[in-house]
Amino acid sequence: MSGENQKFATRCIHAGQSPDPTTGAIMTPIYQTSTYVQTSPGEFIENYDYSRSANPTRTALEANVASLEGGRHGIAFASGVASLAACIHLLKSGDHVLLCDDVYGGTFRMFNNVFAQLGIEFSRVDMTDLDATRAAMTDKTKLVWLETPTNPTLKIVDIEAVAQIAHDGGALCVADNTFASPYLQNPLALGADIVSHSCTKYLGGHSDLVGGILVTADADLADKLHYVQNAVGAVPAPMDCFLLLRSTKTLHVRMERHCENAERIAEWLTGRKGINKVIYPGLDNHPQHKIATRQMRGFGGMITMTLDGGLPASRRFLESLQVFSLAESLGGVESLVEHPAIMTHASVDADKRAALGIDDGLVRLSCGIEDADDLIADIEQALDAANAV
Ligand code: P1T
User: Fold this and answer.
1) Which residues, at least 6 apart from 277, have a Cβ–Cβ distance to it below 8 Å?
2) How many domains does the chain have?
3) Annotation marks residue 104 as catalytic
C-alpha cells in the first residue's frame, strides 16, 4: 500500500521514514554532521553534500509533514518566523502583501519593522469579510497571507474563498496552519499554495523546541523555497528534526484530546460570572462556526476569553492559575495561558489591538491534554480569585 493512500494516523507514524539502511534502526538517526565525504569532487553519496543544503534527519521530517499536509514538498526552518521570512524572500521590492488583520504579533512585526524597510509593502484586512478582502487586492499584490484560526481572536477565514480571491488577482496564497495543525485542516486541499507552520506549537507538542516548516504541492515553488532555505540558511538542527519526528508520531492522539478538553472547557466557561465573552470556533455562537464546521475536522485546543474588570482582573486570574502555566506559546501537552496585549501581541500598536478587541481583559488559553476536570477546577479557583475583589 503506498503511503499516499494511508490514513492520517498511519502517515503520522510512518511517512518519510524507513528503517536506517546501515543498521536497521527503526527510528531515523540524528545525523549530527555538518558535511559528507565525496567520492570524487562533485560526486556525493545519496545527494548530501553539506547540512545547510540537506540533512537526512531533516529530509525525513520534511517528507513526514509534507504527507500530513497532503503536499509533496516540505521545507523546514529554524523557527515559524523563519518560514514566514522564506515566503517573503520570494518577493521583490515594490510588491504588496495582503495580510489578515489578526495574526501572531511576530508576523505583524516582521512585515511592519523588517520587510517594509526593504520596500515590501503590506496592508491588513479582516479576511472574514470577503468583499473587503477582494477590494484590498491591488495590482501589486503578489502574496495573500492568512491565519486560521487567527491568533489570538480565533477568527475563522474561509481558506477556499480567500485562495480564490488571491488567484483571481494573480497572487499566491499562504495559509498559516499553526493553530489547527494538519490533523484538523489541510489548506492545500482548499486551494492555498503554501502551508506554513510554527513547529514550536502542535507539531512539536512538548514545548521543547523551536521550528518552522513550509509545505507545497507545487514543484516550482518548492525549488524556489529550497533555494531560499539554503541561500538564507535558517535551517533546523538535526536534533530538533529528530524531536519533531518523534512528536508527529502522536499528533493525531494529542489533537483529539486537545479538542475534547477545549470543547468541554469552552462550554463550562460560557456564562460564568466574571467572564464577558468566550471565543471558541466550536461554540454555536462563534461568528464563523459554520465555516469552521465545513473546513476543519475539529475545533482545536485554543480558547480566548475576555474577563470583566480589565487588567486587574486578568492579572489576578493569571497569577492564580496553578495547572495552567503563564507563558507565551501554545500547543504543548501542558496547558498554557497568556495575556496577548502584554505578551504575544505587544508589538502590535495599541489602536490596532483595540480595533481587534485585544484589550486588557483578553486572555488566551492553550488547553493541554491533562484531565479536563483538573483544568476546569484550576480555572474555577482562579476565576474566584479574579472576582473576589
Ligand atoms: O515562534 P515561532 O516558531 O517563530 O513561530 C511564530 C508563529 C507563527 N505563526 C503563528 C500562528 C504563531 O502563533 C507563531 C508563534 N506564536 C507564539 C509564540 C504565541 O504564543 O502566539
Assistant:
1) 305, 306
2) 2
3) yes
